[in-house]
């Protein structure tokens, strides 16, 4: 997050619509793939020269899904934007990978941006990638920072022709892409929830400083997920309710179902954030209890040794005329007194249930 904010300084003083990639370069070579389909045919291929193939892409009667992997080659993105008449501010938002999820209506097309999340292997660290979608009357353009397999199930449904995928228009394709994205949130949250339960068990058994650090990391990651899913919910709601010729009523029903899923995710995020807060409180309480137990033991030991120290101090004085010093049984007697005092105090503490 901090790196994205620092990269914003590249645009200081530049006019609106200037194309500058703000984010990390996650691919060496940008890749543009196309899927043309209708109810009876499917055609998949890659595009090398946008300007040369622009007319072909726009005039096909089929649904055209153009997917762009990699955002660092701004000239290709500008050519793609010119081909489909995208506003310069839209291209600017696509290249800014720190965008807040939103939906904007430009009349001839809709622009939707949101976050795809992944959970780092063997960790509760959440990785995010920005996804941008352009919905036109016959086309959908998706922009990804890197080549991911999250959209692969949608491609398989197009290839197989099962269900409504090839019978519906590009608005249904946008629904399908949103649906797999939101489903991926469920998968990530499931793993985060398992990590939270493990942390709670570890806090009860051995509350280590390392565990405290992991709790703080999980709290931060849940905060980011909340920040990404909350505006996505608003964007999907606006997409399903907006009176746009690009979104049919038949697709709006499916979009409202995705909206319901985002509400479930919000509930899960709130639940996990509360669990993490309780786990943190439990950690603090457990550490405090253990510290109190240690202090109790040390206090009892110190209290027992106070009278013993007094006796040792009295008979450690270097006075010549102390009667007990010349008595043969003085040494064992003082030991007996000291042991008796210590045992008596232990019994008294035990009866008072101080330990």
How would you characterize the overall build of this protein?
The protein has nine helices and seven strands; from the N terminus they run αββαβααββββααααα. Mean pLDDT is 83; it is low at 1-6. A hairpin with a 6-residue loop joins strand 5 and strand 6. The protein folds into two domains: 2-285, CorA soluble domain-like (Beta Polymerase, domain 2); 292-351, Methane Monooxygenase Hydroxylase, Chain G, domain 1 (Up-down Bundle), CATH 1.20.58.340. The protein has helices spanning 2-7, 50-59, 74-84, 88-95, 152-160, 170-205, 209-241, 249-314, 330-351, and strands at 31-37, 42-46, 63-69, 102-105, 110-119, 126-135, 139-144. The protein is 57% helix and 14% strand.
Number of strands: 7
CATH class of the largest domain, please? Answer: Alpha Beta
CATH superfamily of the largest domain: CorA soluble domain-like
Secondary-structure element string: HEEHEHHEEEEHHHHH
Supply the number of structural domains.
2
**Which class best fits the helix and strand makeup?**
alpha+beta
CATH topology of the largest domain: Beta Polymerase, domain 2
Rounded to an integer in angstroms, the radius of gyration calculated over CA atoms is 34 Å
Query: What is the annotated CATH architecture of the largest domain?
Result: 2-Layer Sandwich
Counting DSSP H or I runs of 4 or more residues, the number of helices is 9
What's the overall average pLDDT, rounded? 83
Could you name the ranges where pLDDT drops below 50 across 5 or more consecutive residues? 1-6
What's the N-to-C terminus distance?
50 Å
